[in-house]
């Protein structure tokens, strides 16, 4: 098992104890076009490299967008190690986050956290158990996260996502209690509740190392306005530079350029959300120039439909064009200049 302050792969570089503000990408996972749909390690590495070079502040591997529920424990470790090595080779110091570590028991979640640390992750992003929703009282959820954080060799990020946890909503009181734990680094709000983020930002001044992140970017100017410190957004798979530039511009208020870029992001993110996981993957391969077969999710999820492809092509064209313009100009986010 590794401990805070060491690299899980080779012990060579210190791990961050605080989750830095910024834009993080919950990456998609690419599979080979074979009957077994094995991991396409070459294409995944290529994608990790593109995201690192764009100057994102970190990457979430094996999150919801990455189809984590379909990955084996060994595949999870492979992807974390691959991301760790790829980002190190590029020289991007951003955080490697192991996503969707949560399990249906505390013991299994702890085991997954240990695996993630051993593979080189800096943080874990964890859902709470939800199979027996009536038993998941605020007290039970608090106990789960505190036990996980006590045992995890790397800091925990709370994943607030009612859509995949039987509709269970973690209120601000619960999140603020958890923010006091020394090994809980922050929260990802995929409940998309800007009011909740505002309350928590106003109430966590005694926990300065607790980072509050949005779970999307289509309301980027809104969450920045209330003080939230960044986002974990799937849109950064296809437009990482646009997402980072918009976030950086927004630090100085909603300028006309920030508003223009935020509109492109909001339009693109709505389109991706309507297409679900295959729409997200298809948009990513179009933007990044990957082969069409890479859009396939693991079975039994069906291939992306012709209607979804046409809709994505139409509605993300302006966003992708802006991304390519920024890339041609040599723009990179601030993470690479640290």
From TrEMBL:
Positions of the catalytic residues: 159 (proton donor/acceptor), 188 (schiff-base intermediate with substrate)
PANTHER family reported in the protein's UniProt record: 4-HYDROXY-2-OXOGLUTARATE ALDOLASE, MITOCHONDRIAL, DIHYDRODIPICOLINATE SYNTHASE
Family: Belongs to the DapA family.
Designated name of the protein: 4-hydroxy-2-oxoglutarate aldolase, mitochondrial
GO MF entries: 4-hydroxy-tetrahydrodipicolinate synthase activity
Organism, as annotated: Saitozyma podzolica
Alphabetical list of SUPFAM superfamilies matching this protein: Aldolase
InterPro entries for the chain: Aldolase_TIM, DapA-like
Keyword Lyase assigned: yes
Transmembrane feature ranges: none
Keyword Lyase applies: yes
Entry keywords, A to Z: Lyase
Domain of life: Eukaryota
Protein residues bound to pyruvate: 65, 232
């Amino acid at each position: 098992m590794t401990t805070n302050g060491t690299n899980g792969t080779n012990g060579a570089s210190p791990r961050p104890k605080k989750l830095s503000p910024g834009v993080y990408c919950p990456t998609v996972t690419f599979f080979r076009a074979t009957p077994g749909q094995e991991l396409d390690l070459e294409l995944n590495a290529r994608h990790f490299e593109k995201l690192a070079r764009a100057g994102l502040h970190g990457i979430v591997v094996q999150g919801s967008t990455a189809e984590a529920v379909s990955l084996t424990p060994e595949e999870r470790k492979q992807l974390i190690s691959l991301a760790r090595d790829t980002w190190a080779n590029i020289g991007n110091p951003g955080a490697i986050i192991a996503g969707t570590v949560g399990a249906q028991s505390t013991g299994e979640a702890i085991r997954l956290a240990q695996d993630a640390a051993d593979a080189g992750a800096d943080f874990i992003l964890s859902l709470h158990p939800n199979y027996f929703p009536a038993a998941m009282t605020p007290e039970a959820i608090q106990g789960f996260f505190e036990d996980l954080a006590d045992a995890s060799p790397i800091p925990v990020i709370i994943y607030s996502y009612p859509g995949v946890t039987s509709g269970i909503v973690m209120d601000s009181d619960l999140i603020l209690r958890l923010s006091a734990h020394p090994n809980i680094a922050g929260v990802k709000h995929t409940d998309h509740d800007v009011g909740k983020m505002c309350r928590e930002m106003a109430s966590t001044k005694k926990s300065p190392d607790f980072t509050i992140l949005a779970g999307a970017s289509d309301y980027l100017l809104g969450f920045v306005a209330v003080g939230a410190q960044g986002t974990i957004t799937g849109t950064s798979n296809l437009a990482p530079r646009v997402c980072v530039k918009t976030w950086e511009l927004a630090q100085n208020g909603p300028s006309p350029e920030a508003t223009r870029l935020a509109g492109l992001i909001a339009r693109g993110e709505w389109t991706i959300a309507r297409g679900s996981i295959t729409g997200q993957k298809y948009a990513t391969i179009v933007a990044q120039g990957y082969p069409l077969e890479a859009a396939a999710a693991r079975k039994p999820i069906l291939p992306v439909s012709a209607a979804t492809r046409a809709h994505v092509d139409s509605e993300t064209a302006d966003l992708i064009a802006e991304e390519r313009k920024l890339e041609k100009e040599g723009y990179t986010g601030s993470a690479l200049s640290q």
